[in-house]
Design a protein that fits this description.
By secondary structure, the chain is mostly helical. It has a domain of 70 residues. 38% of the residues lie in helices and 0% in strands. It is flat and about 100 Å long.
């Protein structure tokens, strides 16, 4: 049995965009005729309406006040960060937050190293500082955006 032949790709002629072909500037767009809308007549309630309707119609409308009042103050910019790093640090909580994370991580590592058996060789721990934490977060963000197959390619 013979195998069916495969056809090669058929080259498609390139079409370049020319706005004059799509939108002719010399022609004016066609105007549509609007249909006439009939205005309905408004009048007071008829005489044979229930007395409740006449009573409510004679009362003055009450002023509405919404349950939540919104101030009409102008918008005030609270964060004037210009570059991505300062904006990230603003949302993270600043350098003080990084220091707290580093202190907690170093204390946890010291606790884990002291509780391991003396015979086993734990991985050596070097204290974490805020600059190293920022670099580590940057690497994580880079790895999230650039999906590589091997970790060595990062």
């Amino acid at each position: 049995m013979t195998q069916p032949t495969r056809f090669g790709r058929i080259p498609i002629q390139k079409v370049f965009f020319d706005e004059r072909d799509i939108l002719s500037l010399s022609e004016k767009p066609e105007k549509f005729n609007k249909s006439h809308v009939e205005v309905l007549e408004t009048r007071a309630a008829s005489e044979n309406a229930p007395p409740v309707v006449h009573e409510l119609a004679s009362q003055q409308p009450t002023a509405y006040s919404p349950p939540i009042q919104v101030d009409s103050r102008p918008f005030k910019v609270l964060c004037k960060a210009q570059d991505p790093m300062s904006l990230f640090m603003t949302f993270l909580g600043g350098i003080e937050c990084l220091r707290i994370i580093c202190v907690a991580t170093n204390e946890y590592a010291a606790c884990q190293v002291s509780t391991t058996e003396q015979g086993s060789h734990p991985r050596p721990w070097t204290p974490l500082d805020p600059a190293e934490l920022i670099r580590w977060l940057g690497i994580l963000f880079y790895m999230a955006v650039h999906g590589e197959i091997n970790r060595q390619e990062y």
